[in-house]
# Entry
Amino acid sequence: MHSRSTRFIVDWAWHNLDLDYFTYPVDRQNIASRKIPESLGGEVMEELKVETPTGKILDEVVYKIEPIRSHEKDWNQH
# Structure
């Protein structure tokens, strides 16, 4: 589940920035973080192995979040 503040930022961005979609990368093992883009309608667009500055390898899942009609309804309620 996403927080109200995350939803507000996403809704604001759809209405104020010229974006086709957001990307939201998360570590595959971080289930709580994966629930955020999933609750916003995100779908996996790619899976990567990413090396951090400290040399750790992350098994990353990148979500693509596109605007959906429900965002317009939510924005009007703020």
